[in-house]
Here is the input.
Amino acid sequence: MARQERAEQTRNAILEAAASRFDAVGFLGASLSDILTEAGVTKGALYFHFKSKEDLADALIDEQFTVSDPLAEIEDPGLQTVIDLTQGMAASLQSDVRVRASIRLVIEQGSFITPANNAYKRWVDTIHGCLLAAKAAGDLRKEINAHDLAQFVQASFTGIQLSSQVLTGRADLLERITFMWNMILAAVVPPRRLHRFLPQGSLHEPAPV
Here is the structure.
């Protein structure tokens, strides 16, 4: 096995172990010794890839933004793109420990030496760009402010996923996000265009015309 491949496997093992511990007990509750034990690596191997526990947390926080990677391939992003993005994030929170850990770390940002307060802004900016396109296409009512709506969507998603985590371990998260979109769409989309959008997500299929 090539040295670079071994190094990448070690890094992934550390990230997976760190995600498991951060997801289970949070940033303050997770110790480097527990992460090392779960990853099965030495302290030297960890410090080769990450300078500190905060550095590990920063790397995991970036993991949540991989959910938005497919946006780059969408020719005409818009309102359905935002719906699909939130439904994709909801599915990742159910199945991907790294995404769960990254979200918990952002929520616990006050524990960091350097708080991850940019994460919320990155999501708002991503959603805002899609909503600006939606408004230009006539898919939002004229009186709707795209930036205000982007902030509302981000905040609503955060609150809903937290409630779902506490009440059902996120088992009902997809249904809760679908309900959120049913409410939002009715309030912000012109009635004649409501049929174009799928609150449950399009699963990468085009929305009906």
